[in-house]
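Sample A.
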Amino acid sequence: MDAFSIFNALGKFSESVNKPPVSLLEERCVHKQHNQATCDRCISACPTHAFELADGQMTLVAEDCVRCGYCVHACPTGAIVGQTESDKLLKRVAQHTDTSRLELACAYRSTPKIMADPQATLFVAPRCLAALSLSTYVELANQGVTHLSVRGDACADCPIGQLAAQIQETAANAQQLTASHPVMTIDVITELRADSPPVRSIQDTNQHRVSRRGLFQMFTQVNETQAAESHESAYPPTLPPEHQRLLTALESRPDAPSTWASSLTVDGDCSACQVCVRICPTRALVMEVGRKTFRLSLDAAYCTGCGLCTAGCPENVLHVDTQAEPDTTAMTMLTVGEIRECKRCKTIFSGGSDLCPACAFRRKNPFGSRMLVNMEG
């Protein structure tokens, strides 16, 4: 390797080290797409209140971020980008001899002195345990982990310990997904027994011994790594990376329940305006329009529950159903109805009037406006 190549590699390495912990892609945020969006997953869960919403604009105060990693997989549209380093954990687990029983401790806590599971291998996760996403849990099960103990016993004394609720919620959802073959049992440990045995050894995912030759090899492999990360996915590029990863992991688990998926219901008369279809960021909604009828269907596997379609529905008849377990292997019909042509603007719509909803509104409000979707930016 010549001096110029080394200089460029060092520059790239410096950029990766000094880049902000997470980034907010405003164009993907639901609040950028619609001024009535209600999603607040990042705001409600962030332990340091690094996300702020004012006048329909989401902002990230990067200096307040503590790199917990939860928001990266919690965002339903992939608007938050950052490193949870799950790949590092999965790689280290795969390299170990026996990981059928695994114990995970937080990287931000003091070094554990005792074990929750004396038969397990203790790994220190790269981030806060809240960074563990559904896909990470499923991939661990796919790698042969049968018993997983998640060490939350230090959360009570942690400055960001409020994330314990998110850790338990994600683990509970993952338990349902890994209850079929291959089965993995997940235990979130909140308190250790008095007779717990001492730790024999710790596998730290953040500690890697790299030789001088290995360091140069890391630099020469930068382009190869970038090429591997940019491989073509079998799923639409509109799907957030975490959602794509979960779907890929679930391909090995055909019997897994669809508790991870969101569903929609139509409560009332749909006007077939197609606003929901146009605004859906993952293309999960599809409307088929024939000569006399229309059909609105949902691909639940692609729905992330962001709520944009419900915010944009002018008739307010579309609702997110978080309790349903939809069929993620086929399209689900939400509603079907007859259509007609508006006598004024010739738009196809469904309803008993001769005018489409927009023209009917203008007739009653000649000086008003009907803003369906916020298209700023």
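Sample B.
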Amino acid sequence: MPESTDSCGAVTRQELEELADLFDRYEFAFDPLSTEAKEAEVEFENRVNQTYETKVKASYPKISFVEFRCKMRSACREYLRKNRPR
């Protein structure tokens, strides 16, 4: 049986909501150089790294951190697209 490479199940909806909020605060910031935007980016990166280390790395060894980080950024964009008030 082939090894699964889908790490989406490792992130809960609540975690995705929190990551998407942080992502939104820095990726779409009016002033991307503001302290708030920079702090949100650092917190996002820290949480993605922590999630990878604690939930993904052992369960999905073929997924690199870079791949996981890219997938989380894409998942955040998708979450915001579907859930952000218009």
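B remarks: Helices lie at 13-27, 35-56, 65-83. The mean pLDDT is 90.
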